[in-house]
Write a sequence for this structure.
């Protein structure tokens, strides 16, 4: 398991901040390139993700062992593993068998009371009606041709009162990336649509779900990705002086007295993602 996954699965903000050798910009980390993924994780914690102290996957999404958590488009399982660590029954669904294999390995190291894995499309889920009371669908809807069809399936498999966690890229960061990124970034199988903030909320409401909260996060990543397309390092080793300096600058900002408050304002201004917590009536 990667250091990033270990921190996601069990470390609090205090744990993160008490490990100076892993914090970009600290003296102990100077010989190494700053870790943008680790700083991005800390930024996510500040935004409400992975709240170990309260057992919330995201603010308003508590996870307990009795929960059945379904993650559609689970990727390598990092988000779902947080729920598995809390003992929930987790169901991972993704279109790519290779990423499911990674998710299996990640979740195998947790005390999940049950874990199921399916290679399937989001618009045809291989689970019965009313299966889950927590449903995750993050950074998926921008990839699909028919979001309404996917949402019908998500509503079908949710129990009455189920909580849903959705995220899609924000239009401001998407428009920035259209200026600097390759055209393929906005072609299938990548991003085939951009959700305006009001249309995203309406799409969720039109599916019959109640929008509980709508949050903007990830200014750090909006700028990071714009800079990435300018220098194009290998994503498996994404270190470049431009990206390293941006990571160190963001770390230094968060360390200032007003840094976290400014972070939240910048997240509202140009978030990488918009996040909706919703409930099935």
């Amino acid at each position: 398991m990667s250091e990033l996954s270990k921190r996601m699965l069990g470390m609090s903000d205090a744990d993160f901040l008490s490990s100076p050798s892993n914090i970009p910009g600290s003296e102990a980390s100077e010989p190494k390139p700053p870790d943008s993924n680790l700083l991005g994780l800390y930024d996510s914690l500040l935004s409400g993700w992975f709240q170990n102290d309260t057992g919330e996957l995201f603010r308003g999404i508590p996870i307990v062992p009795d929960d059945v958590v379904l993650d559609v488009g689970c990727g390598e399982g990092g988000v779902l593993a947080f729920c598995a660590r809390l003992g929930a029954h987790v169901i991972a669904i993704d279109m790519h068998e290779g990423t499911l294999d990674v998710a299996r390995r990640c979740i195998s190291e947790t005390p999940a009371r049950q874990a199921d894995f399916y290679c399937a499309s989001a618009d045809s889920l291989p689970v019965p009606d009313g299966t889950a009371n927590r449903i995750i669908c993050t950074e998926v809807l921008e990839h699909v041709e028919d979001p309404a069809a996917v949402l019908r399936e998500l509503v079908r498999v949710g129990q009455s009162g189920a909580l849903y966690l959705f995220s899609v890229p924000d239009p401001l960061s998407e428009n920035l990336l259209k200026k600097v990124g390759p055209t393929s970034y906005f072609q299938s199988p990548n991003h085939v649509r951009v959700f305006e903030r009001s249309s995203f909320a309406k799409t969720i409401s039109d599916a019959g779900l109640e929008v509980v909260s709508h949050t903007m996060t990830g200014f750090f990543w909006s700028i990071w990705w714009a800079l990435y397309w300018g220098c194009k390092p290998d994503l498996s080793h994404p270190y470049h002086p431009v990206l390293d300096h941006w990571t160190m600058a963001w770390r230094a900002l968060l360390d200032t007295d007003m840094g976290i408050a400014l972070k939240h304002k910048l997240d509202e201004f140009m978030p990488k993602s918009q996040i909706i917590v919703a409930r099935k009536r």
